[in-house]
Amino acid sequence: MADATHPRTVRGAQASITYDEDALLIKYNDGIEIIEDRCIIATTGRISSRDSRERSILIVKTDETSESGSSLEAIEATGLPPAFEEWHAIDLLPLHLRPTPSEERIDLHVIISTRSGTGLGHAFFQDVVRPCLAAFGLDNAYETHRTTSERTITELAESIFLPRAKSGVRQTIIVLAGDGAVVDLVNVFQSWHLNNEDGASFVKPAIALIPMGTGNALANSAGINSDATHGLRHLLRGSPQEIPTFKAMFSPGSELLVHDARKVELLAKDGESEHGVIYGAVVCSWGLHASLVGDSDTAEYRKHGSDRFSMAAKELLSPSDGSASHAYKGKVTLILDGGNERQGFSDALPGQQHMYILATMVSNLEQNFRISPHTRPLDGQMRLLYFGPLPGERVMNIMGRAFTDGTHIKDEAVTYRPIDGIRIDFDEDEAHWRRVCVDGKIIRVDRDGWVEVSMGEQSLLDLIVVK
Hints:
The chain contains ten helices and 29 strands. The chain has 467 residues and is α+β, with helices and mostly antiparallel strands.
């Protein structure tokens, strides 16, 4: 506690300081300052100071003069309240940011996606992340990688991250991107695991997600976006938790659409079979959700941020040519009670026409869009959200209620339940309606094809979160 010999100061001026869970209240002789708790990353001892009482309060603040719209501020203070220090103080970096006594180093990487969201990843790194790492003495401790194509993260995982993990090197990967970057990493690691290579020395990398995407479903559902520090509080105060994954297996001939759907790539093969496979950690969908993600994944739509989804949905539900919204045709079968023995495989959803079919591992597809209110962070339970063909106005009403804490699941037209997996057999002539979304990636299934989704094997990646 501060006394007459050691007064409380903020920015060099004497002040009284009080703290509750919402804010730090600072009273100067000539005014009051309030620092919201949700903006505070951490407090740490000032590296350049000889006075052990001096602390730096690191905050992320809105800054219209910066390119990213944010900046990092280090506020110098002494005599901070004990309750505030107990919650925010970091004087020893967490294990995922420092080597143990038996290690020479830990591999620390920063990936900056140049295409995610509205393209502010590089600016946010320069304005906030880089000075934050420097404040903790990490300014020369990491390798920086910038994406130059849709395959950059896959190539980094194949050439650097996976080989080092297999050789027993601990790695922390700070990712300034959206969900797509995580699924790229997941696919490289889970595909290696599928091939049953020896992993005796394998060490799981830890991912620190700085959400820069459009929906940021994984970050919003894991609580990383619950404050205003854009994931930096979780990086510095969290711990690694396993990322649950699922496996989506596709019929032969299925193609991954890339470069705004102007090009296609073949899916990785499922072992020795001809089936394509892709792994995910967020959602697998068909119908309205997959269509609006696919239709809005263009440079022009991405300029609108998360509004692109509602823009695409309106066109799908009320086509500009005056036609009715599409009813998606196929057979949807739920996998229940242990898919390995294919038990419950006869539990098909009624009818051959559908509107919204989504198997989700997360609670929120956007910050306030609570698609699965019963899901808990990283709980590893897949859940189904489904409804059949409905008028466009009714669909918009149901989807709108997802923004009111997930009350859409109470609608009588909605089926919402835990599942172990799902299979879809398509009965669509037009390829446009055979698109499947896996964590934002769009796969086009061949005519009379199918997709089967099941929970994945043990995850080989961790996500750093505050419990």
